[in-house]
Amino acid sequence: MNRYLQSGERVLLIDAKKRRHLVTLVAGGAFHSHAGILSHDDLIGRDEGITVRTTMGQRFTVVRPTLGEYILEMPRGAQVIYPKDIGPILILADVFPGAQVLESGLGSGALTTALLRALGPDGSVVGYEIRDDFALRAQRNVEAYLGPDPRLRVEVRDIYQGIDETDLDRILLDLPEPWQVVPHAANALRPGGILLSYLPTILQVARLRETLEQSNFGMAETIEVLHRGWHIEGQSVRPDHRMVAHTGFLTTARLLVPESE
Ligand code: SAH
User: Fold this and answer.
1) CA 128 to ligand 1: nearest atom
2) What's the Cα-to-Cα distance from 65 to each of 142, 156, 258, rounded to whole Å?
3) Cystine design at 108: which of 10, 32, 76, 205 (Cβ 3.0–4.6 Å)?
4) How many Å apart are CA 8 and CA 18, to the nearest integer?
5) Phi and psi torsions of 216, nearest 5°
């Protein structure tokens, strides 16, 4: 990455009220807001982290978005998995450089982007997505952050009907009926491989856990991740009044080799 901001790059513009705007820099371009105009040329060639003023004197701080910030700002088709869950998912599913991963569905591609960043040059993701519009949306979002990436292959198909890949290291699921995938996953993963499922309701989790119980998967675990921000200003040091109280439950299991008689 070039140290200085380049034309074609995305930046986050943050105003005095901490409102965020995701903007792609273009030579000769301008950012218009109720607080005045910012010329892109005043940003191109400069360091990120600078503060600049609009034609009306309003301050904006300029930084490159982190992956977490990009995910919160990027165009969404389906609901994305939030950064607070994506971090733990990468550790719980033990996503390592070089891993061969299957992900389904792709939705807006938030998890896909994070996976590709973690997988190194030899890793790969095959994505099964049932809707062609989401398959396209996910690929666009991945490409907007990482550029064209040959490590990602997307197939428009229903994972409940089966999985063609074999010897996969990891399978990550964000879809409504993951129990339908368990028998396919047991054939597609290598022994010791990990299945991870993100589910919004606990009844879905219970059904998945029952199915896993009757399969060659073992070591099943389910957690939820609670993330509470704090307000820190002078003497006022306390938890934020509001929090995202629920997103989804994370369930993992490992494919084990049945004991021979
Ligand atoms: N994890 C994604 C969001 C996924 S939303 C992200 O972080 O952006 C769930 C996706 O699963 C939707 O795009 C939906 O179309 C897809 N889906 C649902 N059932 C499916 C199935 N049987 N096979 C493949 N994809 C499926």
Assistant:
1) 24
2) 14, 30, 46
3) 76
4) 24
5) -80, 5
- For 77-174, where are the alpha helices, taking DSSP H only? 83-92, 110-118, 132-146
Phi, psi values for residue 187, rounded to 5°? -90, -25
Percentage with pLDDT > 70 across the chain: 100
Tokens of 240: 């934020």
130: tokens are 């049932």
Distance 112 CA to ligand 1 centre (A): 11
pTM of model > 0.90: yes
Q: Report helix angle 83-92 to 110-118, nearest 10.
A: 40
Best residue among 111, 125, 129, 199 to mutate for probing ligand 1, ranked by most atoms within 8 Å of CB: 129
Cis preceding linkage at 45, omega within 30 = no
Beta partners for residue 23, in sequence order:
11
| CATH label, 69-255, candidates 3.40.50.880, 3.40.50.2300, 3.40.50.150, 3.30.530.80 | 3.40.50.150
110 CB near ligand 1 (under 6 Å): yes
Residue segments in the chain with a per-residue pLDDT below the cut of 70 = 261
